[in-house]
Structures are given as C-alpha cells and as structure tokens.
Amino acid sequence: PHAGPVESKNEAAMSELVPEPRQKPVVPMKPMGINASLLGYIGIDTIIEQMRKKTMKTGFDFNIMVVGQSGLGKSTLVNTLFKSQVSRKSSGWNREEKIPKTVEIKAIGHVIEEGGVKMKLTVIDTPGFGDQINNENCWEPIEKYINEQYEKFLKEEVNIARKKRIPDTRVHCCLYFISPTGHSLRPLDLEFMKHLSKVVNIIPVIAKADTMTLEEKTEFKQRVRKELEVNGIEFYPQKEFDEDLEDKTENDKIRQESMPFAVVGSDKEYQVNGKRVLGRKTPWGIIEVENLNHCEFALLRDFVIRTHLQDLKEVTHNIHYETYRAKRLNGNGGLPPMTVETEENHESNL
Amino acid sequence: QNVGCRTLSLSAHVGFDSLPDQLLRKSIKHGFCFNILCIGETGIGKSALMSSLFNTNFQDSPSTHFLSSVRLRAQTRELQESNVLLKLTVVKTVGFGDQVNKADTYQPIVDYIDAQFEAYLEEELKVIRSLFSYHDTRIHVCLYFISPTGRSLKTIDLLTMRSLDSKVNIIPVIGKADSISKAELQEFKKKIMSELVSNGIRIYQFPTDDETVSEINTITNGYLPFAVVGSMEKVKIGNQMVRARQYPWGIVKVENESHCDTIKLRRMLCTNMEDLKEKTRAYYESYRRCRLEKLGCRDIGPENKPVSLQEVIEAKRLEFCLEMERKEEEIKQRFFQRVNEKSAMLEEAELQASMPVLTKYERLLLMHQEEELKLEEKKKFLEAEIAELIEKKAFTVSIQSQVSVSTPVVSLK
C-alpha cells in the first residue's frame, strides 16, 4: 500500500508549470527469505500506519540556515520556498546604522502546517557575512553557532533523566548563496565552504540567476562544480553517504548536472497567460519563479523539501552530530569548553 | 517546544506534507525489528503458539525437564509482508518451573532482560558508535504463559511477573487453553486479573488514547489474559490446510476466534508494535537512569549546579587514568625491585660458585711460584757449587804441576 502526498487545490495549478517529482516507488518486494512462509495474512505491515500516525502526532523540526552577502536575495528565496513570511528582509544599512562588526546569527522559528503535517521551521539568518572590508574568519561565528547547537543536543542526550523528545535546534541545511558573477567562485566562498562542509550539509545556490543567459548559466555552473571538486569541497548530497545504488544514481544526477541550483526568488504575483504566478517583472518580460525554463527554483524546492528533507535531517543526526560528539568525548579534541547560548539570545516573533 | 513560535499560514502548496512518506520510505528500507520473550513451563506450548502467530516454524528440539537452572534460547526469523521486512526474535525460557527449588527461577530472566538493556547502553555510551545500524535486542513484549489449571495463579507466576513488570511489557496468556471449558475459562480469567490487581502487578494495557483504536483496544483489554491455543500441525478442513488440533471429539481451529484468542493476540501484537516499542524505550530510560546513578553520576552537582554526565564521565575517566598510572608506577617499582633483588642474588651465587675455582687456581699458581722459587734457589746453589768445584779443580791442577817440578826423581839403587 502506497500513500501519496495530499494534493491541495493550488497544487493542481502549479503542476502545469512544474512537473511533479516522479513518485519514488516503494521498495519492491524482495524475494522471500528461506524462513518466511507466510500463507496467511499476519498484519505486520500495519506498522507503517502506526509509524505514520506517530510522526504526524509528534510533528517535525527543520532548521535551515542561509549564508551569503547581503543583497543576494536570501530572505526572498526562503520566503518563496516556504510560501510565507518566514524571514524578514533586511532593509540594508542606512547611513546612520553601523554595519555590524561581526556576523550576527538570527534564528526565527515558525510553526507551519500542511496536509496534517506540523512543522516547526527555524530560519537562521547570518547578516553581516562577507560585508566587511576584512572578512577574514567571518565564518567563525557561524561555525560556532552550529557547534553550539550540537553541544546543546549532546548535553540533553547525556543527561541522566532525559526528555522523551530532545528539541532539535541543529542546523539541518545551510544554503550558501553564490554571487552570479559568471566567472568563478570567490576566495571567501571557497574558504567558507571548505570549513563548513565538514560540519553541516551545505547546498550551494547561485543567487539572482536572472542576470545570466542560459549559456552563461551552464558554463558558470560547470566552472563552479569544477572548482568545488578541485578544492575538495563535499556539498550535500555527499558521495560517501549514498546508502545504496538507488540513492547513488539519483544523487549522481543531481550532483553532476543540476547543482548548484541557479535560482530566482520572489514574493510578488503577476498574471501570466491567465494564471497568477510568482515572478519578477522587468521591462523585457516577467520571470516566472516556478517555471523550469526560467530558473531552477522548482528543482531546489523539490530537492530540499519534497524529496530530501528527511535525509538532510538524518545525515545531520547520524553523521555530523556523531562526528562532533566523538570529538567532544575524546577529550575535547581541540574544541574549547562551550558556553551555550541561552534562549533569550534568539529572536522570537513580535 | 512550540512556545514563542507563531503559526504561519502558507499561501500555496509547499510540499513538506510528503515528510512522513520520506520518513517511512527510509524506515522500510532500513527494516524493522521486534523481540518477544516467552516465559512458561516446559511443554506449555510456547513454540506452538509462536509458530501459529507468525506462520513460521519456531520449533525447538524437545527439552528435558531436568535442567538445573532456567536458560533462555533465542531464535531469529526474517518475515516479510508486502514491503515490510521484519526481523523477529523469539526468546523462550527453557526449564522454567522444572526445578524442585524454584527460588531463583526468575533471576536468569531478569538478568537476560537487563543484559539487553546493558548492551544497548554500552553502544550508546561508546565514543564512536553506530546506533543507526545497531541490531536492537531489547525485549519489546513478554508473553507470560499461565498454566490452564482453572484455579488461580501460582506463586511462581506472581513472583516472576512482579520481578519483571518494571522492566518489560507483560501480556499474560493462558497456554493450552483448549483444556478448559468456556464456562470455566471466564471464571479463570476473572480470577487471574483480580489476583494480578491485588498483587500490584502491572501488565501491559493496550493504549486507549487514540480515538481510532481506543474502542477496539478497550474491548480487547477486557479479554485479557488471552486464552491461546497453538499448533504446529495443519489439518485438512474442506479443501484448505489450517492450523488446528484434532481430537476424537472435534477439531480446535487455532484461527477461529470462537475457539480461542490466538487471533486476537496476533492482531493486538501487530497493531500495537509501535506502542510496545515506545514503552520499551521508556523502560530502557529508567534502567539507564538507575545504572548511571549507580555509577555515581548525577544531574545536579554538590552545589546544585547541573553536572553534565559528560563531565562526570570525563572526571571518572581522569580518575581511572590516574589510577592506571599509579598502578603502572607501582608495578614498575615492584619490577625493578625484584630485578635488583634477583641480580644481587645472582651476583652472590656467582661469587660463591666462582670462589673455590679462583682459590684453587690461585693456590696452584702460588705453588707453582713457590716451586719455581725453590728451583731457582737450588739452581743458584748448584751453580755456586759448580763454581767452587771448578775453582778447586784449578787449584789442584796448579799444585800438581808445581809438585812435579820441584821433586827430583829419586831412584832407589
């Protein structure tokens, strides 16, 4: 028995622009083991429904971080991804305001629900990244934040009397915004990704992709992929974590052809061919965000949300967190003793 | 958890409602596991029931009644239904209730359950661990087989269940229930349940908090303990082979709900697997808490500041390292001491052994020297004598020659 996602009315409208991701077939029946000789129905497969009910009841957590220089459209993209104002756009720095000396970390949480599935989504913004004159080590506050979340989880896990469900504030996914220069990656991009790809899942995206033609886009992507490979940067989905052949073939295609996704974000709607679509209006036409001919936003959305969301969480929990834990329990492994940020430092909604 | 978080409404379909599907797909790929413990006297029908419940052969070689202590035997089977792969482990007691003195009958069982918790705890506390691929052997449900005496529970039943009810989900069943008549059965069930209650033994209650299952679960809770019949053999009824027990007076069909509760038990086990596993996790947590507290760890330190287990482990590790170092030093010292003693001994012995040889040699040497001296002396003495004699000879020769010159020859005429 295979249940598909619940289709809402909007889905029908969207599906004409965006092909639905091919429904992954449930694992085909393996040949019967020697010991199994099920003549009658036992009822073991009801465990699937039990698990589904349980997960729907407890809900999910998802924490996504956006990193990139200001003005690359990070907040807009996240809002477009989650179809709501989950991230507040910064209005830039005016003359009176001082540019923050270091990178700030701002985490904002919202609860969103769809099809009976409740999700606590936390968007972690990093204003100030790459905006100073001297950007040396500007990834350090970010790395510190990520490690602090691992530390928080570890402390809870190591308690004698543990909570039934430990709150998960670990960063599951980090979208890194690349400037669409058309040439190559900047040294800052490489530095950041080199340091952080070992502690968190990094998904590089090319921001404001509407400034490149199709040929420029393809060339730029190829060059970026090459540079990442040459520098030994493993972005998500990492090759070494492919679980089986099925995963490998699917992920190979994404790694070698689609990524990094060249995206455009927008929260404004326009009329195109009698339909209301999200887009950017320019004198030379309307760029439709969810049109695959215009940009790869839909691919990014499907990748992050519709097919790999759970996997992002699992890689974070089973690999990145375990690596941190092992280092920590092996006598600090070079990490300074942690002072964990308390809840008050996180911005909550007004 | 959601305190301080505002709920936002979505303006369009995002697509994260596929999240449960994504999770389930991964779980299915990974497979499921379930562990059942069957406690019951030899011959009460544990293997037969397991085989009937899961349509798989769980038969053992027949065991003797003369084992000196209770042992546990585990069997694992991989079952598959549509796309669900289940690794089912059935652990059975061997020799339960056979001993003349039943005082320690339940201890091996308690130890076994604790050992599974301990194994999981060990894995969890490792620095480099692989919890994701760890084969969970913790017992998820314990089926306790009650003898179909028709009277009441035995003391051993009460003792065993009481020792286990804080560690595992217990579902009491009446084994070989086809030996009790329907009328007696109702009375028997009522008696058992009241005895369990009056002895404060907690058995597993099927969850009634979810509306979809609360009704059926409440009804099923009323059927406890399940009167079960199992069979390894199949009997041809109509044109089907069904599991049944054939008597001269009729056939007891295992899967007929009016004959016995086996099907109810199967349905309840399968539809509440997740809940049983959830409650097992809670039992594990309390085991873990006790265990760690026994090791001397606390969540709150002496100044009422939260002490992390990690710090305690760190402190204990340092303590342990220091202890090891101290012991190492001690052993080293002792070793050197012994070496010194031994070498002194050896030197002593060597001295002793070599002394007569040396003296002998020295003596001989001395003797030789003395002899040499004597001989030297004699040599000198003799040489002196020779010299003297040569002198004398010379003198004598000279006198003789003088005498021959001075004496004329006088002839006697």
TrEMBL record, chain A:
The lineage of its organism: Eukaryota, Metazoa, Chordata, Craniata, Vertebrata. Belongs to the TRAFAC class TrmE-Era-EngA-EngB-Septin-like GTPase superfamily. Septin GTPase family. Residues 1-24, 330-350 are annotated as: Disordered. It holds the Pfam family Septin. This is Neuronal-specific septin-3. It comes from the Eukaryota. Residues 58-331 form the Septin-type G domain. It comes from Hylia prasina. GO terms for molecular function: GTP binding. The keyword Nucleotide-binding applies. The keyword Flavoprotein does not apply. One of its GO terms (cellular component) is cytoplasm. It is found in: Cytoplasm. InterPro entries: G_SEPTIN_dom, P-loop_NTPase, Septin, Septin3. Keywords: Cytoplasm, GTP-binding, Nucleotide-binding.
From TrEMBL, chain B:
It is found in: Cytoplasm, Cytoskeleton. SUPFAM superfamilies: P-loop containing nucleoside triphosphate hydrolases (SSF52540). One of its GO terms (molecular function) is GTP binding. PROSITE patterns: G_SEPTIN (PS51719). Residues 358-392 form a coiled coil. The keyword Transmembrane does not apply. GO terms for cellular component: cytoskeleton. Keywords: Coiled coil, Cytoplasm, Cytoskeleton, GTP-binding, Nucleotide-binding. The keyword Cytoplasm applies. It comes from the Eukaryota. Residues 30-294 form the Septin-type G domain. Gene3D superfamilies: P-loop containing nucleotide triphosphate hydrolases (3.40.50.300). Pfam families: Septin (PF00735). Its main location: cytoplasm. CDD domains: CDC_Septin (cd01850). PANTHER family: SEPTIN. Belongs to the TRAFAC class TrmE-Era-EngA-EngB-Septin-like GTPase superfamily. Septin GTPase family. This is SEP10 protein. It comes from Hylia prasina (green hylia). The gene is Sept10.
